[in-house]
Amino acid sequence: MRTLNLFRGLFRRFRTLVLRREVEIVGQCRLCGNCCHGILLKDRGWLKRKRQFDKLCEREPAHTRFRITGKDHRGRLVFDCAMQGEDNLCTSYGERLPLCRNYPSKSLYYQGGWIGAECGFRFKSVTFRDVLLRRKQIRAPRFSDVLDQERERDLQQADKRTT
User: Fold this and answer.
1) What angle do CA 48, 50, 54 make, to 5 degrees?
2) 28 with 115: CB under 8 angstroms?
3) Residues 43-68 pLDDT 10s
4) Residue 39's closest CA among 61, 72, 74, 73?
5) Which Pfam families did the record assign (predicted)?
6) What are the residues facing 70 on neighbouring strands?
7) Which residues pair with 84 in a beta bridge?
8) CB neighbours (10 Å) of residue 100?
9) CA–CA gap between residue 15 and residue 102 (Å, rounded)
């Protein structure tokens, strides 16, 4: 499974580079609460030992909201958030950490991960199939490039009129 996620993530990065189209995150929160479980934390690398987590909490006390629930297949600590209420709402919504405010992040997609079906968010990406079947452009022109072309055309037309 991890090898599959690795290759999936690499393929997604490759496709983004070739098609020059970033993944989009669409949808809205359905209050399922799954984002509050199975959390992996970083502090100069993934946290793998309780001691690392304790040091992080000393420097950034807001992280004490997380509770260690185990380890994943790579030995990284897995956390749940203690601020999740019975109704799946955050009991500390106004003081959420950036990790929580920014969920889901594009990094999850580029690491080969998924968002659960019960979550209201999803990843929307342009595929090679979309481009080959001409359902999507490889890359939409940048607005500034279109403006530059229009200015250039206007200048050429003005030059023709004056000569």
Assistant:
1) 120
2) no
3) 989 999 999 999 999 999 999 999 99
4) 72
5) CxxCxxCC (PF03692)
6) 78
7) 90
8) 17
9) 24
pLDDT tens-digit map of 82-136:
999 999 899 999 999 999 999 999 988 998 888 989 999 999 998 888 888 877 6
CA neighbours closer than 13 Å in the CB half-sphere of residue 123: 21
What is the 3-state secondary structure of 10-74?
HHHHHHHHHHCCCCEEEECCCCCCHHHCCECCECCCECCCHHHHHHHHHHCHHHHHEEEEEECCC
Count CB neighbours of 47 within 10 A. 23
Q: Would you kindly state where each structural domain of the chain is located, as residue ranges? A: 2-125
CA distances from 66 to 1, 88, 151 (A): 26, 15, 55
Show the tokens assigned to 10. Answer: 């690499």
The pTM score is 0.68
How many other C-beta atoms lie within 10 A of the C-beta of residue 137? 13
Task: Tell me the one-letter amino acid at 49.
Answer: R
Q: Which residue has the higher pLDDT, 162 or 23?
A: 23
Rg (CA), the chain: 23
Tokens of 87: 């109704």
- 8 membership: H or E segment, kind and range: helix 2-19
The structure tokens listed for 100 are 């929580």
